[in-house]
Design brief:
4-stranded antiparallel sheet, 4 helices, globular, mainly beta
């Protein structure tokens, strides 16, 4: 199906780099796009998941929440979460072996499908909370024994405190200010059903993720000095990406903006659910310079924010310049999805000159099969082989799912 021409308008401010005269490797794939209309009664589309045999499960906002799209008939079928209470609202699905599992939106309960010999199970989830450790958790996968693969998170304050550009500023804060605990790496854990940590699969760097802008001056209600902390996400973050396949393998994407060598590449590191490193794939790319003047304009915008809060203009500019991550090139990629069959789709950073997003399609052996260009408003949510499933990233067509088949090489005119 042809993409709607009304989608050609995009926000060009998303382009942080020069026009793509830097030819990237990879053959061009021509996408065949099929539209699936979703009944309004299903509610808002929350997530899409593709299972080991290619079955497509979708989580909606209205009960019964989970429905499967039958490819052969084009019909929707309810996926019953037998045994789960009415209060159970799933947020993520996956498969351990042939058994479907679902975690609720608070990540405090786990439902697992029966396997023919056992009934479906429903259990409370106890995620570890070791003192001053990670404060956020994301269940990525569940293994056959019911152990959870958990990605951890912390506040932006803790990330900024670990960043050398911002860490020095915390030393300048008065002693009465409670400082965040610096966290420079986030673990990915294998967690037992009772909350015990069985293993650490990976440590994920938080470098170049957050910045801290201190604002001093003024008096608070008690008449003492006041200092605010403005915490922001870096505009060009190049910290590793972490995701998991529906069947549980973990993908770590290392995407530094600077490589310091003549053969720049980003890395796809694949881990099995038991923590075993299964493969490391290196994919070359051509570094794209950051748009000329980007650093100056970004520093000026940050400084203006500080000045509006009472900071001296010269000091505000110096502070903004010190904390901003200013790579010469944009990161190689901005998103990644891995399917149940090991195929991976990796999104290149930014948009091309037509205002489209570009996705590299990589087979399980780490070979780049080709590159597919998609409308900027598509939000890719799941992949299986050379097929991706997406929704629109705004409210223009909320009840629509898009199936994208990228198996055909585009014809290049002589």
């Amino acid at each position: 199906m042809r993409r709607p021409e009304t989608w050609l308008g995009v926000t060009m401010s998303m382009l942080l780099f020069a026009p793509p005269i830097f030819a990237q490797p990879g053959s061009t794939l021509q996408p065949d796009v099929t539209r699936l209309d979703v009944p309004d009664a299903f509610g808002a589309l929350r997530s899409i998941h593709v299972g080991p045999t290619g079955q497509v499960h979708v989580v909606f906002s209205e009960p019964p929440f989970v429905r499967s799209w039958i490819v052969s008939t084009g019909e929707w079928q309810v996926v019953p979460l037998t045994g789960a209470p009415d209060s159970f609202v799933p947020s993520r699905l996956g498969w351990s072996g042939d058994r479907l599992w679902a975690i609720d939106r608070r990540q405090t309960a786990l439902w697992r499908e029966g396997d023919g010999e056992s009934e479906p199970s429903f259990q409370a989830v106890y995620l570890p909370r070791p003192g001053a450790g990670p404060r956020g958790y994301r269940v990525l996968a569940v293994d056959e024994a019911g152990r959870l693969i958990v990605g951890t998170a912390v506040t932006l304050n803790s990330m900024a405190a670990a960043d050398p550009r911002s860490a020095a500023m915390f030393d300048e804060l008065p002693p009465e200010i409670e400082l965040p605990r610096p966290v420079g790496n986030l673990p990915v854990w294998v967690v037992q059903p009772d909350g015990g940590i069985a293993d650490t699969i990976a440590m994920v760097s938080t470098a170049n993720r957050a910045m801290m802008l201190p604002v001093s001056g003024g008096l608070d209600a008690s008449g003492t000095g006041r200092i605010e902390q403005i915490i922001r996400v870096q505009p060009l973050p190049d910290d590793p990406l972490v995701t998991a396949s529906p069947t549980g393998s973990l993908l770590l994407v290392e995407r530094p903006a600077e490589h310091g060598d003549a053969s720049p590449a980003y890395l796809l590191k694949v881990f099995e659910r038991d923590g075993h490193a299964a493969a490391v794939h290196s994919l070359s790319y051509v570094p794209v310079p950051v748009r000329s003047g980007w650093a100056d304009s970004t520093i000026a915008a940050l400084a203006d924010d500080l000045v509006e809060r009472g900071e001296d203009p010269a000091a505000a500019t110096e502070t903004a310049s010190r904390v901003l991550h200013q790579p010469e090139h944009v990161p190689a990629v901005s998103a990644a999805h891995v399917g149940p069959d090991g195929w991976t789709w990796v999104r290149r950073y930014g948009l091309n000159e037509e205002g489209e997003q570009e996705w590299e399609v990589v087979d399980p052996e780490g070979t780049r099969v080709g590159v597919v260009s998609l409308d900027a408003r598509l939000d890719v949510m799941a992949v299986h082989g050379q097929t991706a499933w997406a929704k629109t990233s705004n409210d223009s067509e909320p009840g629509t799912i898009w199936r994208i088949d990228a198996r055909r090489l585009a014809l290049v005119p002589d």
